[in-house]
Design brief:
Blueprint (H helix, E strand, L loop, with lengths): L21 E8 L2 E6 L12 E6 L9 E6 L10 E8 L2 E6 L12 E7 L5 E7 L10 E8 L2 E6 L12 E3 L1
Antiparallel strand pairs: 1-2, 2-3, 3-4, 5-6, 6-7, 7-8, 9-10, 10-11
């Protein structure tokens, strides 16, 4: 019907398993959809997490096929990659709110991926909060617009205010 809304397709991970939490976070940009699965076990590492890219015309017209799975180059158990996801054009930003940095459990991090001219996705870097601390959960929320990235740390302590939270631009 004109202006009617309806389900087009159910997206699922090609390697989906129990407790992956596929759909924990989702983002869309034009003909690309990124879906976080922060409970995904990767190489035997429970809750390392991952994210999946689907594109509209992959394998068939309006097919919404899975293009690839993203994992962190230095991923570990409990990182929760895919806690939040953001996509715009050839950039994908993935949050890992449970990433432990040295003795700082759940300080969190974010990973930036870019598609090169050959069509390959490369991890550009790992983003960390300046002055990050234990339990900040940096990477729990994300936004991406052009060359501006914002990463939230909902449990960051600010001065003497526990869990006040902050966002990093």
């Amino acid at each position: 019907a004109a202006n009617g809304w309806g389900e087009v397709k159910q997206l699922t991970a090609g390697d989906g398993a129990n407790s992956d939490f596929f759909g924990a976070a989702v983002a869309v940009s034009l003909d690309a959809v990124v879906v976080g699965a922060n409970g995904d076990s990767v190489n035997g590492q429970p809750n390392q997490g991952s994210a999946y890219l689907f594109e509209r015309n992959h394998a068939a017209a309006n097919g919404w096929g899975q293009v690839r799975q993203f994992v962190a180059g230095d991923g570990a158990a409990g990182d929760l990659l895919g806690s939040d996801v953001a996509v715009q054009g050839d950039l994908i930003l993935l949050g890992a709110a449970g990433d432990d940095l040295a003795a700082n459990t759940d300080q969190g991090s974010a990973y930036l991926f870019e598609r090169n001219q050959a069509g390959d996705w490369l991890q550009l870097g790992k983003l960390l909060a300046t002055g990050g601390a234990k339990s900040d959960e940096f990477g729990g929320s994300l936004a991406l617009d052009g060359d501006t990235l914002i990463v939230g740390a909902r449990r960051a302590n600010v001065q003497l205010k526990n869990d006040q939270g902050s966002a990093y631009l």
